[in-house]
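pasting for the record
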Amino acid sequence: MYTPKQFEMNDPAELTAFMQQYNFAALVTNTADGLTATHLPFMLDSTRGQHGTLIAHLAKPNLQWKHFANGQEALVIFTGPHAYVSPNWYEKPQTNVPTWNYTAVHAYGIPRVMEDPQEIYAMLDQLVVAHEVVYEKPWVMQSAEEHVRRLIGGIVGFEMTITRVEGKAKLSQNRSEADRYHVEQQLAQSHDSLASGTAALMQAQREQTTEVS
């Protein structure tokens, strides 16, 4: 991923938190027929491997999983908030052009198919618990035990130890302090959750930079 120095995300804790928060990502693999991608919810086990281990599952009819056996490196792309930036928000709009602020993390590794049904069951249960916890009356997988056990045969669980990871947060760091402030304020006022989410990241980065300096 092309990442100028000022946009790099290098803090391991920040990269881990990003993958956990924006965990619906794209799995990209190279096959004999060319590149293939599937969008999946991932979980990250930060205790396994230098950069953690990603865990997910595919529908068995999705034959992408069969290519894991070739041992080739795969890429998982995580994306966070992003937003269009208008030149009108800069102090000198007549000498600038539009751009896009965004955040992304790329994780690389070699996927491995899970063979143990119990391991797959535990993975699904963990995924459900992680996403149901925010609800007043969470749905528990055990309430549909027989149905779940039957459906497990139709999926393929896999895990991927991350061998390298790179992150990019393009949040107007290359602009003047005044321009960054104006962009942040404009995005914060937007009714688009992606735009306001980008503004929140800009604010967090600004506050972190202020603390460091």
